[in-house]
């Protein structure tokens, strides 16, 4: 047997280990009440639980979680503090499936890998739509320190399943829009970890390393389409939602709601380690739904791109589906069912001058924690 054959066999074994691990992890979550001993476990949590049921349920778990970083740092906007966010176990295994070994890209191109990620995402979404999943809500609240006082319905017993809690609503006024009286202000579309770039070229230089990350591929447009020209040199706001975040998303601008375009795709993790991987496409490969909004102050189109991800159940539009309706900054437009995911807001030249603190952090590069309605930029006079 040649060295190359041996290497390929090892890679195939690792692929099977990771695929079986993800399947076992999702299955384990169906029966485990404590999410910190399931898909939301981190390496730190795992090592603190010597008799963890998760270790027994997922073959080779510890081996699957040692090959990659355990998470990433983000900046708290108000204080400038940098905090470490540990990666959930399901993301760790997803990363292992994508990037283990020198031949990872060859393996990634197989339909088998894509089907595994899709199947497990659908399985997890269906489970969290079931009544049985209510048992996971209390431990999820505890693990992520979710503030029940800001919820429209703080009584956990009132939620019929986990997903209903996951895309929970907040009390009116819980996310005020900064400078609400100024029609030129642009605000954050979500509670998120935000990276912003004045041009797509800068986004590719500092953050998004996919080979096909450009306007036609992101928006599913023919390169000759007039919209491609309008979005040339567009500014980007990339909002990543972590599992703990409030998962309804809101309009960043005042405007008129337009078309929604759905693009089927993959279910790769949107973790920064995947987005930052050279040559690996996440945003232009994953399933996504695009809402176009005509910006009131400039008359220009803004593309609101909601991107699905590993273990995300679905993307749902609420007011965003009301084509022709007027919308205000901070108005809800839709939500994600289970999973961490991403929104990319694409704004043509002239729509926004981004806040400098966010630009500086993004070029470190590091995401900044912001809330819905937070000031992220302003339309030039």
Spatial strand sequence of the major β-sheet = 2-1-15-4-5-13-9-8-7-11
pLDDT average, as an integer? 83
Order of helices and strands: HHHHEEHHHHHEEHHHEEEHEEEEEEEHEE
Global structural class = alpha+beta
First-last Cα distance: 69 Å
Helical amount = 25-40%
The fraction of residues assigned to DSSP E strands is 15-25%
Shape: globular
The number of helices is 14
> Strand count, sense and closure of the main sheet?
10 strands, mixed
Question: Rg, please?
Answer: 21 Å
How many β-strand runs?
16
Low-confidence blocks of residues: none
Write up this protein.
This protein is 31% helix and 21% strand. The chain is built from 14 helices and 16 strands. The strands form three sheets. The protein has a ten-stranded mixed β-sheet with strand order 2-1-15-4-5-13-9-8-7-11. The chain has a three-stranded antiparallel β-sheet with strand order 3-16-14. Strand 8 and strand 9 (301-307) form a beta hairpin. The longest helix has 29 residues, at 3-31.
Task: Spell out the key features of this protein.
single chain; 381 residues; alpha+beta; ten-stranded mixed β-sheet
Compose a concise summary of this entry.
With 381 residues, this protein is α+β, with helices and mostly antiparallel strands. It is 31% helix and 21% strand.
């Amino acid at each position: 047997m040649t060295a190359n054959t041996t290497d390929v066999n090892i890679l195939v074994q690792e692929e099977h280990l990771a695929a079986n691990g993800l399947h076992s992890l999702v299955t384990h979550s169906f029966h485990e009440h404590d999410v910190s001993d399931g898909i939301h476990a981190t390496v730190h949590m795992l090592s603190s639980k010597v008799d963890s049921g998760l270790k027994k349920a997922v073959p080779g778990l510890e081996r699957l979680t040692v090959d990659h970083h355990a998470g990433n740092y983000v900046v708290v906007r108000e204080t400038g503090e940098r905090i470490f966010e540990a990666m959930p176990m399901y993301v760790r295994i997803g990363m292992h499936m994508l990037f283990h070994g020198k031949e990872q890209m060859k393996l990634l191109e197989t339909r088998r890998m894509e089907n595994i990620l899709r199947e497990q995402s659908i399985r997890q979404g269906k489970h969290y739509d079931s009544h049985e999943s209510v048992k996971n809500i209390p431990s999820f609240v505890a693990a992520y320190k979710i503030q029940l006082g800001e919820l429209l319905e703080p009584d956990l017993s009132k939620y019929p399943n986990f997903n209903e809690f996951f895309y929970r609503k907040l009390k009116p006024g819980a996310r005020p829009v900064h400078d609400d009286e100024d029609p030129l202000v642009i605000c954050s579309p979500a509670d998120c970890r935000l990276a912003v770039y004045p041009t797509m070229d800068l986004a590719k230089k500092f953050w998004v390393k996919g080979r096909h990350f450009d306007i036609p591929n992101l928006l599913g447009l023919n390169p000759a389409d007039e919209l491609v020209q309008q979005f040339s040199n567009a500014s980007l706001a990339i909002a990543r939602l972590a599992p703990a975040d409030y998962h309804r998303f809101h309009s960043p601008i005042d405007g008129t709601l337009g078309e929604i375009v759905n693009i089927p795709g993959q279910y790769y993790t949107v973790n920064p380690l995947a987005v930052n991987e050279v040559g690996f496409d996440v945003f232009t490969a994953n399933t996504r739904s695009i809402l176009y909004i005509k910006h009131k102050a400039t008359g220009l189109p803004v593309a609101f791109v909601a991107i699905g991800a590993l273990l995300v159940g679905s993307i749902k539009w609420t007011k965003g589906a009301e084509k022709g309706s007027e919308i205000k900054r901070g108005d809800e437009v839709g939500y994600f069912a289970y999973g961490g995911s991403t929104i990319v807001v694409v704004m043509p030249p002239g729509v926004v001058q981004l806040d400098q603190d966010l630009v500086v952090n993004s070029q470190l590069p590091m995401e900044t924690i912001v809330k819905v309605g937070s000031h992220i930029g302003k339309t030039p006079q």
